[in-house]
Amino acid sequence: MKSVKIALLILFFSALLVDNAAFADRHMRCEGSLVSIGDTKAQVLDKCGKPDKIDQWKEYNNDSMTQIYNYKTERYIAPQQVPNPILMERWTYNLGSNQFIRYLYFQDGELIKIKTGEKGSD
Length: 122
Known about the structure:
four-stranded antiparallel beta sheet, alpha+beta, two-stranded antiparallel sheet, 27% helix, 122 residues
């Protein structure tokens, strides 16, 4: 019985850690403001300033692209047709040697993903 309680406690705390990790990938704090999935490029520029690097590309898939993942809700959805081309951008923020580099991904001007990279530099 004691081992069952310990296993439940471990499961509970693991769930808390996973939930906190998900929060970290949906939000980014910069200059006292919070950037979140779904923000526009203009909102991110206003809150964080100009990124250190911007990569841009277009994605094509014949006549249209099928989207089956909603980044705002983090859930798979019924396939939806998205007209081509889709403008993709990756903004890189090097926040200094005391923090990790953050990569912000935009799809047609809307923030869809925030990834944490390696340790930053000054």
